[in-house]
Amino acid sequence: MRAQTSQPVHEIIATRRSPRSLDGTAKIEEADLLAILEAGRWAPSANNGQPWRFIVARPGDESFEKMMEVLNPTNASWAKNSLAFIFTLGKTTNQNGEPYADYQFDCGLAVAQMSFEIHHRGFVAHQMAGYDKVKAREAFEIPADLVPLVIVAIGKQDSPEKLEGALFERETAARVRKPMDELVISGI
To answer: Can you name the CATH fold of 11-176?
Structure first.
């Protein structure tokens, strides 16, 4: 379903969604995953600091099982059909060991670029903050200078009818955004 934008935007932006109904029988090639990670690698970052770090997990490997264990129950109920997860971590210090004040912003840019590449390759992405960060830190032995940020589920969209209740309602709801005049404070 295409978003009803107030101005023309790139087709990937207009048609991108974060679905929950995923086809667990689909496949993703390693070349696609590498290209998705490459898109994130080339995201802009303050002083070229590149604070993002990624943990990739695919069904059948130990990391995938760990991801499923740290997700909240609602996310786990549908994310089990993901073709891969990319867990994004943020490095909180720069190359000099000083605080990297904008690491979350930069990591967000990397996730956004990966999301566009995912969509461009015919897959869908769903970014999740609904997971236990303490459990994730323990499960993946994440060092203190890295902060768990977001888990991106990658999949092939499936029929919304495979979901029930609130998940079905969210899956079939129209995409909406606040109006432009609520977001742009001045300048236009």
So the answer is: NADH Oxidase (3.40.109)
